[in-house]
From TrEMBL:
Tree of life domain: Bacteria
Protein name: DUF1731 domain-containing protein
UniProt keyword Metal-binding present: no
Region forming the signal peptide: none
GO MF: aldehyde dehydrogenase (NAD+) activity
Phylogenetic classification of the source organism: Bacteria, Bacillati, Chloroflexota, Chloroflexia, Candidatus Chloroheliales
Length: 311
């Protein structure tokens, strides 16, 4: 049976990818660090493999035997103030994770490796709709993931068949969209938004990210990058507007000055929030991928309905 080895399978995107890969008939082995993650992985029909991607271990033997690898693990990046020191740790840990994973793989037997990066690497590109060939201008976390992305060329030269995936602002019933939009709205609290001009973002439904990663395993071209984003960028306010409508609650904003955001979230996350992202999904669509939720108008009501049902 064809097998996939997944790192970060217990995370936000991983939770959309792993059950889908199991349902598609793959044997899915997921690297896990905790009992809680193990149980969740088993519950969706995947096989947990104990290990820490920051430390050598038996897990590397399991990774070496996989037909496909999906690398989603990232050092903790969300949930606390991101200081420069924390971002620098993120950068170093990300390099180490890649090194330990990639050094365990056999270029002759592994068929595809999906490397999940982030669009902050492309950064601010002004008002044009940009594609993967655009020269990156890393912003926010971008400068801290750039060394890992730039090192991929070395692994490619070693023969590893890497396909790069760049999801945009991933929304779903978890992560930042739950914390800053769904939860405050449901509690009838104000939704935070930064002062200043309203920016554009390229969002994408987490389930479409899971589907796109599965699609790229077979259809992605080695050494190519793919943006995973909706058909059109939207004003960032559009997301809470649609969430409030779907929840049937009024939308009220609490405007946060940039300097307060820098104090609470840190300068790096604040820079991400003040960056314009207008990205094209044309290359992904050329591979034959079809979005289930090509717009936030389609996706957000589904996220809200799903979240209310499982609460
Ligand atoms: N979420 C977004 O909006 C977004 C947007 C664009 C790109 N991305 C990229 O997509 C990838 C996945 O993002 P996500 O939001 O799903 O991340 P996430 O929810 O933060 O999950 C991170 C995952 O990495 C695992 N992990 C962390 N350190 C590990 C270690 N030392 N050993 C083994 N596993 C470890 C975690 O496992 P535990 O369960 O054990 O903690 C968890 O499964 C990341 O590379 C991120 O940069 C995310």
């Amino acid at each position: 049976m064809t097998s996939i080895f997944v790192t970060g399978g217990s995370g936000f995107i991983g939770s959309a990818f792993v059950p889908r890969a199991v349902a598609a008939g793959y044997t899915v082995r997921v690297l896990t660090r905790s009992e809680k993650s193990r149980a969740r992985i088993q519950a969706v029909g995947a096989v947990p493999v104990s290990g820490d991607v920051l430390q050598s271990g038996d897990w590397q033997g399991e990774a070496a035997q996989a037909d496909f690898v999906v690398h989603l693990a990232q050092p903790e990046a969300f949930g606390a103030r991101v200081t420069l020191k924390r971002a620098q740790n993120y950068r170093e840990q990300r390099l180490r994770m890649d090194e330990l994973l990639f050094s365990s793989l056999n270029p002759v037997t592994v068929r595809r490796i999906i490397y999940v990066a982030g669009t902050s690497y492309y950064g601010d590109q002004g008002s044009a709709l940009v594609n993967e060939a655009t020269r990156p201008n890393p912003k926010g976390f971008g400068p801290f993931i750039a060394p890992a992305i730039e090192r991929l060329s070395i692994y490619l030269e070693q023969g590893l068949p890497i396909v790069e995936a760049y999801p945009g602002w991933v929304y779903g019933a978890g992560s930042w969209f739950l914390e800053y939009n769904l939860a405050p709205l449901k509690a009838r609290k104000k939704v935070p938004r930064l002062t200043g001009p309203i920016k554009m973002a390229s969002p994408v439904h987490v389930e479409d990210v899971g589907r796109a990663l599965l699609h790229l395993l077979e259809k992605g071209t080695v050494a190519k990058r793919y943006f995973i984003v909706d058909d059109q960028p939207v004003r960032v306010n559009r997301l809470p507007e649609l969430a409030a409508q779907a929840l049937g609650v009024p939308l009220r904003f609490r405007t946060v000055p940039e300097f307060i955001s820098k104090l609470i979230l840190g300068p790096i996350v604040t820079e991400s929030l003040t960056t314009e992202f207008r990205l094209s999904n044309a290359r992904l669509k050329e591979t034959g991928f079809e979005f289930e939720f090509p717009t936030v108008e389609k996706g957000i009501p589904e996220v809200v309905a799903h979240w209310l049902k499982k609460r």
